[in-house]
Amino acid sequence: MSRVDEDAKKWRRDVGLNSLFSNTRPAIPRILALLPLAASLTALSICLPPDLRPLALRSCGIGLGAYLTTVHLVPVISKKIPRSKFGCDLLKRPPRLQIDNKDKTIPESLGLVSGVVFVLALVISDAIEADHVVDAHTLAAATLAIALAILLGFADDILDLEWRYKYALPPLMALPLLAAYSGGTVIRPPVLVRRYLTETKLGDVADYLLKLVGGSVVPEAMGLVDLGRAYQVSDSEQKMNLNLTWSRRWRRCGAASRRRRRRGRQRIYMVLLVVFCTNAVNIYAGVNGLECGQVYVIACAILAMAAIELQHDRSENYTLSIVFLPPFIATTLALLRSNWYPARVFVGDTFTNYAGMALAVVAILGHFPVMLLLLMAPQLINFLVSIPQLFKLRPCPRHRLPTYDERTGLLRCSYVNDRVKITENDGMNLTLINVVLRLKPMTEPALAATLLVLQALCCALALFLRFGWAGGIY
Ligand code: UD1
Ligand code: MG
């Protein structure tokens, strides 16, 4: 074994494992990890109207079952992953070393386990809740979209698809969702816009223009805006479906989906949201615990938001989140246990794909895409910072991960030269992770914890903007 290899091992043991956030000191990461969950459960127990509490309890019960199943299955399935599908833990070794097969020690794609358990949990929810509080058709379409995302993500892990295919897949995964989408055409603009619409002549002008597309500024509704055909599709058709048998419902779904697809141009934002969410999670990754951790924090924030909203707004938009999110949070948390530093499994593109899809699904069916973007501020910033490399305006290596410094045992930001080789100080790899490390080099678990605290702060700020500040911007 070379000297450098020995050094790397020594630092991993001495510095990484003794970090405050490493697994050898389990209390701190575990307490931190439970905070978002505790916050969302508190919001559920305080804010949820009494008649929705049984729904939340059933959902949390299904979530608990999903958590235990995933915790049990991850080690079992990880032993069955073939050696050829193992990955190398890149941040435990200096970048200049060649990666041999013997360095690939961590089983990949374990997102498959949490994903399949999540889908099964959704199927159970669908059987129990269908048509009581959420529309069975919508829930079935959401489940199908997630299942497709798992399938295509797993195909990506196995086949190592090129980026052009990765961009092409999300719209395909979004098809069931687009077919099912029947949301109302009324939107709620921010307070400032609503004030202009109700108190100035702008309201009359907007009303006139909206009438051209079958919409209006909703009378007596304090500035709510009905976008009519500009938003698309009355939901009467879907309501009729509720009285049909499953098979007829699916047949009608097929016919309706063909009609709706013709109107698809108006839904481009949905496809863009799915493309953004799946890719944004995937490129904000590569640090043990970061993939699962970020998604877990965002999902907890959405659950808390849905609970608060349901105090005033009893629409299906938010009840869907109550059904959908507890099993999602539970399976993600179970996967995080094995993916936290030092990772025993990698989640793979299977996870990033279906997790991004799940966030997009709740936002689209819940009618809060802008709020989701606020909650995903770190992913958005990482995407914006990455644009020069993503669009090949600057050299983009296969991995833009930080560099492991064998001398100090800390991670530093990484640089790349014009021949797409990682170097000491050419151009910095443009990621938020590298920006944070440029401010302060740190160990891998400390970096993951810092990025997750940043994520939690962004979510708290987004919720504060929505509910706290002078009644919120909405
Ligand atoms: C995206 C990023 C890439 C980053 C990778 C990490 C872009 C354009 N692509 O590529 O820069 O390096 O994700 O996931 O931004 N790995 C670790 N530790 C972890 C997780 C993953 O070392 O905690 C490594 C493993 O070698 C694993 C590999 O990352 O095999 C997985 O990479 P993959 O998901 O295939 O990369 P991409 O999604 O293509
Ligand atoms: Mg990936």
UniProtKB/TrEMBL annotation:
Catalytic reactions on record: a di-trans,poly-cis-dolichyl phosphate + UDP-N-acetyl-alpha-D-glucosamine = an N-acetyl-alpha-D-glucosaminyl-diphospho-di-trans,poly-cis-dolichol + UMP
GO MF terms, alphabetically ordered: glycosyltransferase activity; metal ion binding; UDP-N-acetylglucosamine-dolichyl-phosphate N-acetylglucosaminephosphotransferase activity
GO BP terms, alphabetized: dolichol-linked oligosaccharide biosynthetic process
One Pfam family matching this protein: Glycos_transf_4
Topology in membrane: Multi-pass membrane protein
CDD domains according to UniProt: GT_GPT_euk
GO cellular component: endoplasmic reticulum membrane
Enzyme class name: transferase
Spans traversing the lipid bilayer: 27-48, 55-77, 106-124, 136-155, 167-187, 268-287, 293-310, 317-336, 356-385, 446-469
Keywords: Endoplasmic reticulum, Glycosyltransferase, Magnesium, Membrane, Metal-binding, Transferase, Transmembrane, Transmembrane helix
Signal peptide residue numbers: none
Location in or out of the cell: Endoplasmic reticulum membrane
Pathway linked to the protein: Protein modification; protein glycosylation
Function: UDP-N-acetylglucosamine--dolichyl-phosphate N-acetylglucosaminephosphotransferase that operates in the biosynthetic pathway of dolichol-linked oligosaccharides, the glycan precursors employed in protein asparagine (N)-glycosylation. The assembly of dolichol-linked oligosaccharides begins on the cytosolic side of the endoplasmic reticulum membrane and finishes in its lumen. The sequential addition of sugars to dolichol pyrophosphate produces dolichol-linked oligosaccharides containing fourteen sugars, including two GlcNAcs, nine mannoses and three glucoses.
Family named by the database record: Belongs to the glycosyltransferase 4 family.
Protein name: UDP-N-acetylglucosamine--dolichyl-phosphate N-acetylglucosaminephosphotransferase
Organism name: Pelagomonas calceolata
